[in-house]
Write a structure and sequence with these properties.
Low-confidence stretches: none
Shape: globular
Helix content: 25-40%
CATH architecture of the largest domain: Alpha-Beta Complex
CATH topology of the largest domain: Spore Coat Polysaccharide Biosynthesis Protein SpsA, Chain A
Bound molecules: 1-O-phosphono-alpha-D-glucopyranose
Strand content: 15-25%
CATH class of the largest domain: Alpha Beta
Structural class: alpha/beta
Largest sheet: 9 strands, mixed
Distance between the termini: 64 Å
Strand order of the largest sheet: 5-4-1-6-11-8-12-10-9
Mean pLDDT: 91
CATH superfamily of the largest domain: Spore Coat Polysaccharide Biosynthesis Protein SpsA, Chain A
Number of strands: 13
Length: about 300
């Protein structure tokens, strides 16, 4: 099987959970510390060797294209001022990857967004990265998934153990062990099971390495949960295993993952990433300790001291 070179990033969602911030701006451009969320995702793809990135976008997404393009006026102003640090930050996202854009058209779900990549991807395995999940760059996930894909030639999804109380927010996998500690064989998948009915606590997080046969399956996948064409449903068919497609494996991730799709989790991600930064951490850490102490035990009153 050919090595993977392409990444697909679905980015057509309306981001309604972040209104009004996302009224005129794509949610993928929300800053996580000082970088838009989408840049972390593209950096992750590039770090794993995938420099051909296809974004599946929709209306209101021009800011994404602008972010990965040159911005002459700003560049020349910074050059004139001799501000090479800022100039480097501006230029970095321009040269990061070979980014392509395709509109989703009808927003019919994640499976539909992935299907739109068919012509661009061709008959090769490819990665899919969802922008709401950020993986800490110090922890390896995508590179490991690509290795497992090359070894086993199957379709690979990233799995994370989650608390059963949140399992209904994810695609959930039932699995069997393999001879590798972090790799499981997937025997079943269910998209967002009703609360309390999840068959396991292994959730799909938004990283996939898909075989191109997924496109044929997606073409006939009927709308599922929420009336949308679900990638999870197509993967379930793949796991049921037509022999030519070789089934589905999961790589169980035990590193740091940040969820930026939900407001509270987004705020946690910004704080976590900021306190670890060399330029911001020293100022933020003592402030945060003091602030947290002032919060007391959760009743709004400071702790008695
Ligand atoms: C999507 C997938 C779901 C997966 C999740 C990971 O759901 O459909 O299977 O667990 O991403 O973030 P979404 O959160 O986009 O509704």
């Amino acid at each position: 099987m050919a090595p993977v070179t392409k990444a697909v990033v679905p980015a057509a969602g309306l981001g309604t959970r972040f209104l009004p911030a996302t009224k005129a701006m794509p949610k993928e451009m929300l800053p996580v510390v000082d970088k838009p969320a989408i840049q972390y995702v593209v950096e992750e793809a590039v770090a794993a060797g995938l420099t051909d990135v296809l974004m599946i976008t929709g209306r209101n997404k021009n800011a994404l294209e602008n972010h990965f393009d040159r911005v002459g006026e700003l560049e020349s102003t910074l050059e004139r001022k001799g501000d090479s640090d800022k100039l480097e930050k501006v230029n970095y996202s321009t040269g990061l990857a070979d980014v392509h854009y395709l509109r989703q058209g009808d927003p019919k779900g994640l499976g539909h967004a992935v299907l739109r990549a068919k012509m661009h991807v061709g008959h090769e395995p490819f990665a899919v990265l969802l922008g709401d999940d950020l993986i800490d760059h110090r922890d390896v996930l995508l590179t490991r998934m690509l290795d497992v894909q090359q070894q086993r030639s199957t379709t690979i999804v990233a799995l994370l153990e989650v608390d059963p109380s949140v399992a209904h927010l994810y695609g959930i996998a039932t699995v069997e062990p393999t001879d590798e500690e972090d790799v499981v064989r997937i025997t079943g998948l269910v998209e967002k099971p009703a609360p309390g009915t999840a068959p396991s606590n292994l959730a799909i997080i938004g990283r996939y390495v898909l075989r191109p046969e997924i496109f044929d399956i997606l073409e006939r996948t009927e709308p599922g949960k929420g009336g949308e064409i679900q990638l999870t449903d197509a993967l379930q068919e793949m796991a049921d295993g037509p022999d030519w497609a070789g089934g589905v494996h999961g790589v169980v991730f035990r590193g740091r993952r940040y969820d930026t799709g939900d407001r509270a989790d987004y705020i946690k991600a910004v704080v976590q990433l900021a306190v670890e930064r060399e330029d911001l951490g020293p100022e933020l850490r003592p402030w945060l300790r003091e602030f947290a102490a002032g919060l007391g035990d959760g009743d709004g009153d400071p702790d008695p001291s």
